[in-house]
Write a structure and sequence with these properties.
By secondary structure, this protein is α/β, with parallel strands linked by helices. Strands 1-7-6-5-4-2-3 form a seven-stranded mixed β-sheet, with helices on both faces. It has a five-stranded mixed β-sheet with strand order 8-9-12-11-10. The protein is globular.
Length: 409
């Protein structure tokens, strides 16, 4: 029996099995919006198969790019292999992917109740609480899932490590509480390099592929790794709603996967160095990073292969300090998003988590760092000079910001 390939090897070779038959080495990009039909009957059968979530018949046609595209399918195959899943389905954004999951498992399945474990990415939290998709959401902690389940519960949404404060939840424990209710895990921060939720019993592993999978800040996409049965349901939603990923985006993501393990390990190593520097800084009241508590529950050891490259910190000087630091960095770009080759700094409460209700929103003193591929010493020097720019005295801006954000929440 052939030994399984190392993830580094899978990242390079997955989704490329047809390239030799095509006579090419680099990934091809198929930009066709429509495809020739062999005849009316086979064309119609092909349309029916894909519009209901299936794959193109061997003797049929791909018909139309909203139903199927080979460039997108190669990326999906590669991501599924990395996530140890039967299939994956790619979308135009992470939010489009989450929307499809909610629709397929909520209203479309006659199960309009969703359980969401906080903290979550602000966009997901807001989508679930908005009522736009016809679902009712119960928010809870990871140990309250079983008590929150109702007969009409169709989905449990979990993110670990969570955005923005890197909270770690025990995926297997949540799955055990869920029983027959499917659990989707947002795996964006960990990536398949560090964590495989499907191996731990989750029904789906979701990524904002915009982040680490692409890795270069030049493509927006989302993808869900899951069973083939679940993939059919998601492809049906995608075909009907049109939330498809453009082939050029799929090409960039597939290319990005080849360097994902190398990038993640390098970024993680730099993040660890920065964390050790931050915990001794008087300007920082608290650092949020997996493993700083020594992993007393053993979750990291059981479900992750590393701690990642995201850091959050609470500034000693409150909002005024947080604002000053974001304005003073030069190597850290003040911008939303994460997971790229360049380092970013962001204020979650004012940006990505602005629509989240006040009781669940990060504090105005919290900053989030996404560590890139720059030299660790250079990044530390940039933070040091930014900390030096923090004004002394009262946090005059915090009350005004909290009042403004409260009105939004």
């Amino acid at each position: 029996m052939t030994a399984p390939l190392h993830p580094d090897t899978v990242a390079v070779h997955a989704g490329r099995s047809d390239l030799e038959d095509l006579g090419v080495h680099a990934l091809p990009i198929d930009l066709s919006t429509m495809n020739p039909l062999p005849d009316i009957e086979r064309g119609g059968d092909s349309y029916e198969a894909m519009a209901t979530g299936g794959r193109p018949p061997a003797d049929g046609s791909m018909v139309y790019a909203r139903l199927w595209n080979p460039t997108v399918a190669r990326f999906e195959e590669a991501l599924a292999e990395l996530e140890h899943a039967e299939a994956s389905v790619a979308f135009a954004s992470g939010m489009a992917a989450m929307t499809a999951v909610i629709l397929a498992h909520g209203p479309a399945a006659g199960k309009p109740h969703v359980i969401a474990v906080r903290p979550l990415y602000g966009g997901t939290d807001h989508l679930l609480g908005s009522g736009l998709l016809g679902v009712e959401t119960t928010y809870c902690h990871s140990d309250e899932v079983a008590a929150s389940i109702r007969p009409d519960t169709g989905l449990i949404v979990l993110e670990t490590p969570a955005n923005p404060t890197l909270d770690i939840a025990d995926i297997a424990a949540v799955v055990a509480q869920a029983g027959d209710v499917p659990v989707i895990v947002d795996n964006t921060f960990a990536t398949p390099v560090l964590q495989n939720p499907v191996d731990l019993g989750a029904a789906m592993s979701l990524h904002s592929a915009t982040k680490y999978l692409g890795g270069h800040g030049d493509v927006i996409a989302g993808v869900v790794a899951c069973s083939e049965q679940t993939a059919e349901a998601l492809r049906r939603v995608r075909a009907v709603t049109g939330g498809l990923l453009h082939p050029l985006g799929a090409y960039l993501l597939h290319r990005g996967l080849t360097t994902l393990p190398v990038r993640m390990r390098a970024q993680q190593e730099t993040a660890r160095r920065i964390v050790q520097w931050l915990i001794d800084r008087p300007e920082v009241a608290e650092v949020f990073y997996p493993g700083l508590d020594g992993d007393p529950r053993g979750i990291l050891e059981r479900q992750m292969r590393g701690t990642g490259a995201m850091i959050a910190m609470r500034m000693q000087g409150g909002y005024a300090a947080a604002s000053a630091v974001t304005n003073a960095t030069s190597l850290f770009t003040h911008a939303v998003s994460l997971g790229g080759v360049d380092s970013l700094i962001q204020h979650p409460a004012a940006l990505t988590h602005r629509p989240v209700p006040a009781e669940a929103r990060p504090g105005a003193d919290v900053l989030r760092l996404s560590i890139g591929l720059e030299n660790a010493d250079d990044l530390i020097a940039d933070l040091a000079q930014a900390f030096a720019a923090v004004p002394q005295g009262a946090d005059a801006g915090a009350a005004a910001l909290e009042e403004e954000l409260h009105s939004v929440g």
